[in-house]
TrEMBL record:
GO molecular function: mRNA binding; structural constituent of ribosome
Gene: rpsA_2
Protein name, as recorded: Small ribosomal subunit protein bS1
Keyword terms: Repeat, Ribonucleoprotein, Ribosomal protein, RNA-binding
CDD domains noted in UniProt: S1_RPS1_repeat_ec2_hs2, S1_RPS1_repeat_ec3
Protein family membership: Belongs to the bacterial ribosomal protein bS1 family.
Gene Ontology BP terms: translation
Source organism, top-level taxon: Bacteria
Length: 641
């Protein structure tokens, strides 16, 4: 059979052996690589491994011409001018391509020669490949015509690990990151499509070409961007396509450069997310708001294509007018009410009710509620409108003075206790302040809890009404007669001897309790006939002592006492009074002490100048404290109200 040995067909049908000598397997395997293993473009080829021989000198890895001399179901027998024919696997011819014919001349690659290390005349059968010869010749042709930076086109034929294979005559590698500017969700969508790419790198040693579609797009966009930046002007209307959406806005492709359409420039009305207005691939007509040529940033607007609803807002919504609106948002400090698309006003929590104590606005309103509001203020520059809900109703404080005149008795419930008094709710939302100083005529009240408790119902008398500042002063002690008017002066007269109990000792004297809540001051100079440095040398708290009433001051509500004068005769009293009268002529009178426990001012002039100086210092300090306490009480009452 044309020089074939008798053993040819047995040899051709046995499993092929893998020879590692004189064969560059990197070249051969490169074209049979699997999808899983071929994660880069064409494998390693070495140009030196490919030589061109004439038909008389056949060796491995050579491409030669041969004639088909026999065809069967498994192999095609080819004569390449060697002493024995070569075989090609029948499956190297795809079904869609022309099938082999006897006598046809084809180019083939010599893959292996049996006994290739023996002398030429002793060598046996050879193994050929038509497919690999075609691929190698295509590759060599591509290497001659394609250079780095060239723009090529080809069909995406297969998805492999890390990217796509693109057929440009040979398969080249397109990494997934280079498919588009923004990596697509599935690069398999490009399979079967003809795409243009830029050659990024050619590795001649490994016969590997890496291409990029992204680089080509970016280069084209950069060119378009430069041209577009020269064309754009602020105020222009341009068409573009939405390419990406973020929480703060949407990026619109103007045809080579992206601009930002911020969420605040999408609509005059309220929107929570840009996706409510636009979607990816939407075509929009936008207005150029600002161009930063240095940073190549463009601000776009959509709402600016129409007139602002804030134009002539004062004419549409005059101050004090009542209008309807829809609650669109509720915050801890108030509720936003939409008057029309693009115009919202704020109802502050303090403007929601005249009388109700509101912890959160949702106690009165919810989103989508339609409510009546009054326009309070308009700031057109800041585009802000202040609204009120309570102004749509009558203000109950305007009638408080008429309903609660001075000296009227009222009943109410103790709503809150503070250090300076109790707040009494006399009707829903209207409180009166019962100050500690108005709880008892005679008792010194340190805290209102000594007299009333929270939730208790009490009856008080209205002392005053400040309608402008929304304050009502109440009194509890005013329910009874003032004992200092007639009762106390009648029961405690000058020179009278009385018994009492020591309740408090200070450095200037002793307070003596005469009855429930009523105290008199026993000055240190009136403790004993001798000079007393420390009152505790003479008396202690809780001691029962007998004292003489020196004077009763009804206006200041104070009683002056003396212990040393208990045994004095009338002559001694007269002499002491004369001395005091003489001293009063030359000295400025000082404020009295005693009575219901106030510490401010001496009841009479001390016996010694040393004591006088100490007492004077004490008086000034106490007066300052009283003034500070009164100021703090007023401030606290204002805050509570």
């Amino acid at each position: 059979m044309l020089g074939c040995s008798d053993n040819f067909w047995r040899w051709a049908r046995r499993p092929r052996l893998v020879f590692y000598f004189m064969v560059n397997r990197n070249l051969i395997r490169e074209y049979d690589i699997s999808d899983e293993d071929w994660d880069i473009a064409i494998g390693e080829l070495a140009e030196d491994d490919i030589g061109w021989l004439d038909a008389t000198d056949v060796d491995v890895n050579q491409i030669v011409e041969g004639k088909i001399i026999r065809i069967d179901d498994e192999f095609v027998l080819v004569d390449v001018g060697y002493k024995s024919e070569g075989t090609i696997a029948r499956d190297e011819w795809e079904e869609e391509e022309p099938q082999p014919e006897i006598g046809q001349v084809i180019r083939v690659l010599v893959e292996d020669v049996e006994d290739s290390q023996s002398p030429l005349e002793e060598r046996g059968m050879i193994v050929l490949s038509k497919r690999k010869a075609e691929k190698i010749e295509k590759w060599m042709k591509v290497m001659e015509t394609v250079h780095e930076g060239d723009v090529i086109s080809g069909e995406a034929v297969r998805k492999i690990k890390g990217g796509l294979l693109v057929d440009i005559g040979v398969n080249v590698f397109l990494p997934a990151s280079q498919v588009d500017i923004r990596r697509p969700h599935d690069i398999g969508e490009y399979i079967g499509k003809t795409i243009e790419c830029m050659v990024l790198k050619i590795d001649e040693a490994r016969r590997n070409i890496v291409v990029s579609r992204r680089s080509l797009i970016e280069a084209q966009r950069e060119e378009k961007k430069s041209d577009l930046l020269r064309e754009l002007e602020v105020g222009q209307l341009r068409k573009g396509m939405v390419k990406n959406i973020a929480d703060f806005g949407a990026f619109v492709d103007l045809g080579g450069i992206d601009g930002l359409l911020h969420i605040t420039d999408m609509s005059w009305g309220r929107i929570n997310h840009p996706s409510e207005m636009v979607k990816i691939d939407d075509e929009l007509e936008v207005q150029i708001l600002h161009i930063d040529y240095e940073k190549e940033k463009i601000a776009l607007g959509l709402k600016q294509k129409s007139a602002s609803p804030w134009e002539n807002v004062a004419g549409k919504y005059p101050v004090n007018s009542v209008i309807k609106g829809t609650v669109v948002n509720v915050m801890s400090y108030g509720a936003f009410v939409k008057l029309e698309d693009g115009i919202e006003g704020l109802v502050h929590i303090s403007e929601m009710s005249w009388t109700k104590r509101i912890s959160h606005p949702n106690e009165l309103v919810n989103i989508d509620d339609v409510i009546d509001v009054v326009v309070l203020r308009i700031d057109e520059q800041k585009q802000e409108i202040s609204l009120g809900m309570k102004q749509t109703q009558d203000n109950p404080w305007e009638r408080v003075a008429d309903r609660y005149p001075t000296d009227q008795l009222v009943k109410g419930k103790v709503r809150n206790l503070t250090n300076y008094g109790a707040f009494i709710e006399i009707e829903e939302g209207i409180d009166g302040l019962l100050h500690v100083s108005d709880m008892s005529w005679t008792r010194k009240i340190s805290h209102p809890s000594e007299v009333v408790e929270k939730g208790q119902e009490v009856e008080c008398k209205v002392l005053s009404v400040d309608q402008e500042r929304r304050r009502i002063a109440l009194g509890l002690k005013q329910m009874d007669e003032d004992p200092w008017a007639t009762d106390i002066p009648n029961r405690y007269q000058q020179g009278q001897l009385v018994n009492g109990k020591v309740t408090k000792i200070t450095n200037f004297g002793v307070f003596v309790g005469l009855e429930d809540g009523l105290e008199g001051l026993l000055h240190i100079s009136e403790l004993a006939d001798h000079k007393v440095e420390n009152p505790q040398e003479v008396v202690n708290v809780g001691d029962d002592i007998e004292v003489k009433v020196l004077r009763v001051d009804s206006e200041e509500r104070k009683i002056g006492l003396s212990r040393k004068r208990v045994e004095w005769a009338a002559e001694d009293e007269a002499a002491a009074e004369a001395a005091e009268a003489e001293a009063a002529k030359s000295e400025t009178p000082m404020e009295l002490k005693g009575g219901i426990g106030s510490d401010s001012g001496p009841l009479f002039k001390p016996a010694s100048s040393e004591t006088e100086d100490a007492e004077s210092d004490d008086t000034a300090s106490t007066e300052e404290l009283d003034e500070a306490d009164e100021e703090n009480t007023v401030k606290a009452a204002e805050q509570e109200s």
